[in-house]
Amino acid sequence: MKARLKWVEAVSFLAESGSGHAVLMDGAPEGGGRNLGPRPMELVLMGTVGCTTYDVIHILKKSRADVRDCVVEVDSDRATEDPKVFTRIHFHFIVTGKALKPELVERAIKLSAEKYCSASIMLGKTADITHDFEIREAE
Hints:
This is Putative redox protein. The chain is an alpha+beta fold. It is built from three helices and six strands, in the order βββαββααβ.
């Protein structure tokens, strides 16, 4: 996996993934930025929730669950002093489908957290990571 980052100005950077996708990162105005894009640590958090959600959906579909939607709300805390690593991350999964079994959803989340999601397993070295979920019946 490769990436490239170019400094644009002040605290703005254009990052390009090895697959050719780009994202602009920027800082808050009080830090010299213009608030044109997410902060780097926000991208770490978004990448992590993307990684675990990918796993959960994949596991549910492989289990033949009739999953129709998944939204994950994430809440986190970071250390107050440098390095300001994540110290707590909570994932709240809202899974929508037809007759979804709670034990199946719980299993998918657990497998992602403990075996498949590289990002959350890596962040788990500094952060207390927790999960919960709710199931909504699709119409």
